[in-house]
């Protein structure tokens, strides 16, 4: 099975934390959107991987335009992470229409991923969903890079995976999305999008270490530490964290 056919699909299992415990394999997966899956992709999701829960972090407009392929026996949950954000460059539509300083806009989006009410409530619900039952779950947004990237970083941070490993997983998106991004840009070029705008979109389709660093910097400034953000921002208790680690760590 060619995993590149499902853009940016990969698992978090296998990473080691600071205590040399391993994130359990076969449970936590991240991905780009699961729109218009073909027969092989459906088989991969439902049978090869055995996904039982899909968590969609996109907005209503994105879900309407590119709905997830619904497969029997799989639970689908929607969490609009940036619903009330004042800045949101995480959707393809925003990338196409947004002008100006794309990197500045993306940094502002990551501030919203840390501070907006919908992001804090959404990531709280995200962890609560993962606490209900340790079953094969995939979470995604449009590209699987920003809302999903922060979701993955929160998971790995809660599991005490080193910051360097968290950043490496985050940046892996640029490699995983290379072909898909080229396809998007080629299609937009055919539709007459100007070259200067294509260059802007090309930047917006990638992740940058500065983005995730900004997310954690904002947390440190606002809350003092990630642990305090977990307690005050995400409203997760020490018991939540202990149970999460018990469910998703081994060794």
UniProtKB/TrEMBL annotation:
PROSITE patterns: TYR_PHOSPHATASE_1 (PS00383)
InterPro entries: Prot-tyrosine_phosphatase-like (IPR029021), Tyr/Ser_Pase_IphP-type (IPR026893), Tyr_Pase_AS (IPR016130)
Pfam families in the cross-refs: Y_phosphatase3
Protein name (database record): Tyrosine-protein phosphatase
Record-stated family: Belongs to the protein-tyrosine phosphatase family.
């Amino acid at each position: 099975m060619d995993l590149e056919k499902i853009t940016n699909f990969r698992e978090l299992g296998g990473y080691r934390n600071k205590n040399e415990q391993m994130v359990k394999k076969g449970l936590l997966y991240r991905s780009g959107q699961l729109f218009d899956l073909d027969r092989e992709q459906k088989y991969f999701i439902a049978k090869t991987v055995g996904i039982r829960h899909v968590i969609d972090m996109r907005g209503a407009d994105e879900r309407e335009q590119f709905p997830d392929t619904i497969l029997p026996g799989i639970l689908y949950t929607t969490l609009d992470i940036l619903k009330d954000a004042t800045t949101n460059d995480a959707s393809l539509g925003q990338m196409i229409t947004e002008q100006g300083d794309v990197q500045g806009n993306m940094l502002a989006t990551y501030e919203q991923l840390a501070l907006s009410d919908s992001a804090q409530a959404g990531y709280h619900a995200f962890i609560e969903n993962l606490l209900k039952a340790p079953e094969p779950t995939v979470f995604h947004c449009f590209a699987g890079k920003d809302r999903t990237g922060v979701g993955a970083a929160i998971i790995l941070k809660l599991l005490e995976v080193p910051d360097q490993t968290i950043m490496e997983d985050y940046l892996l998106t640029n490699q995983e999305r290379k072909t898909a991004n080229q396809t998007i840009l080629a299609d937009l070029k055919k539709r007459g999008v100007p070259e200067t705008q294509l260059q802007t979109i090309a930047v917006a389709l990638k992740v940058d270490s500065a983005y995730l660093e900004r997310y954690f910097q904002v947390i440190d400034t606002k809350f003092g530490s990630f642990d305090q953000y977990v307690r005050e921002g995400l409203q997760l208790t020490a018991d939540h964290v202990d149970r999460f680690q018990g469910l998703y760590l081994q060794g």
